[in-house]
Amino acid sequence: MSRTFAVGLALVACAGGARAQTGRGAARRSHALLAQAQSLWRGIAVRDSVANARTAWERRARRFDAGPLTVLLPDAVGTETGFRITAGAAEYLRDALPARFLAVRVVVALAATGVDSTVRTERLRNRARIPVGVEPRPDTLADGWSVAAAVAWDYRETLDSTWRGWLPPDLGLGWTPKRDGPATVRELMRGDTRVGAGCLEGKVDACRLWLGLDADTEPYKVRYRPRELQALVSGRWFPTHQSAELAQQCAAEARDACLRLTSLGYLPPIPAGPSPRASFVRFVLTRSRPGALPQALQDRAGSVGDRLVRATGVAEDSLVQGWRAWVLTEGGMPEVTANLRDAWPVAVFAGLLVLAAARSGRWR
Amino acid sequence: MYRQILYVQWCALRLPVVLLGVLAFALPLLTVTYGGGLEGAPPGQVAQWLYAAQQIGQLVPYVAMLAGVLLGIGSWAPDHAGKHVYALSLPVTRARYVWLRFAAGTTLLLVPVTAIGIGALVATVSVRLPSGVHAYPLALTARFLLAAFVCYAIFFTIAISTRRAALAVLGGIGGLLLADAVLWGFGVGATVTPTVFMWLTNWPGPLSILIGRWALFDV
Question: Does residue A302 share a domain with residue A213?
């Protein structure tokens, strides 16, 4: 605004100068005005450069470590917040990612400046950088989830196609029973597929199909009924002419068209969405020994289910049964209970209150 | 003696007790006003129905609190109105009188508890649930009983407490808020009031029963 004002003032001064060719006094006045405008301009430039230098100083990259995780954040986030973010991210990633992966990566906030020099001085040159798009404000960084999610995305890209096709984008590490459990249960209850309804009923085979744990040769045939594929197609947008035409035919109950459409890869081969699959990852992480999930993720042979069985040492059916019970009860939605565990605090507290009331009162 | 106290209490509280009974009976029935035939229901309907049922279930602890407050304070209303002359005229100790009043109030509390139990059973019988979804009429009734009982005990004690005790409670609450303000003023991250609240509402806190899961129909 001040810059615009100064430029405007200079223009007025110049215009005034052109008009003032008629008199000497007027020319002097216009010169004085021009000098004043130039002085203003210089002041603004100095102020801007100082502000820029200050911003650059505040945004200079600063190293924070938590275990094998190294993060470069803008200095403006502060020491305490920086360590909190890094520790929070490390907590999200704990037992899920191999330490050797984290040891060769450095997470770099895009808002940070002077990253190259920090990388040089901190001896991080050999590490691959993971950019994280966060502003240097503590509230946007929350509890380190942005950093953890960026690392999880990067790690997912290093996995084989079986894992990349199955895992949610953030590997499901952000899934929490309290926050995401109800959404997972609602998806299970939606009952828009036969296998989903079967899983809700407690059929383990149906759960395996719904979660896409097995390497089925014809996934669309075994996991969906033709009517379900038609329902899946309706209301969905298809980018190519061929796929749109096939979708129309599929919606008009042409079964072959539906199957041809699936071969184009526009329909999800796994009926369960990212939230239930994330809950499965979280279940494995919670209930198995430390290091089991990284071992499964590094495994490149067989289906997702086979890999998890090898890593956890638990039969696939037991894993699935355990997950179902966990999501439907303890993890996602606890049962409606009223047992001795609930009753005794009430009884003790009420008893103490009445004893207190009996000891003293208004008419004693 | 108990029967006389119960009769006196019933005379003083019959209107709120009956109203609470009607409310408690109607609440579970509201759940099934969305329809009862869910076997083979179209996709999505079960989830929506369950969501609505759970939203209605969230009202149950509030009714339990209302019952506890009304009966707890109402138990002493005749005594306050009569300046405790009736109580002093009885040939019983104060402690025994308090226990009799408490027992009579607890008996009256059973009216809304029984009503919600009957309502929950009627609602359960009237629906055909899909597999995977269960009804919890007994658990809901028992939770209602515990929640109403703890609220009743709190307000029963507050209603008969001395002025000094009431001031101590108020002072305690004020002290917590003041401690929070002082900590905030010094830039300390710790908070006292939320910690106390968490302690009260997380098991084995006495108010944890009010916070848990309240739904007649659930997975």
Answer: yes
Judge whether A211 lies within some domain.
Answer: yes
Quick: pLDDT tens for B162-196: 888 888 888 998 998 898 888 888 877 677 888 88
Residues A271 and A317 in one domain: yes
Give me the DSSP letters along A3-37. Answer: HHHHHHHHHHHHHHHHHGGG-HHHHHHHHHHHHHH
Write out pLDDT tens, residues B19-74. Answer: 999 999 999 999 887 666 766 665 456 666 777 787 888 899 999 999 999 999 99
Q: What is the model's pTM?
A: 0.58
Interface of A with B (CB under 8 A): 185-186, 189-192, 200-202, 328-329, 333-338, 341-346, 348-350, 353-354, 356-364
Q: Which residues in A lie closer than 8 A to residue B139 (C-beta atoms)?
A: 335-338
Residue with the two structure tokens 């968490």: B198
Q: Are A212 and A106 within one domain? A: no
Domain coverage including residue A17: 3-55
A263: Cβ contacts below 8 Å, ≥ 6 apart: none
User: Nearest residue on chain A to B135, judged by CA atoms?
Assistant: A336
Closest by Cβ to B218, choosing from A333, A345, A364: A333
Same-domain check for residues A309 and A228 = yes
- Both A128 and A262 in a single domain? no
The letter for the amino acid at A20 is: A
Assigned domain for A269 exists:
yes
As for the ipTM of the complex, it is 0.86
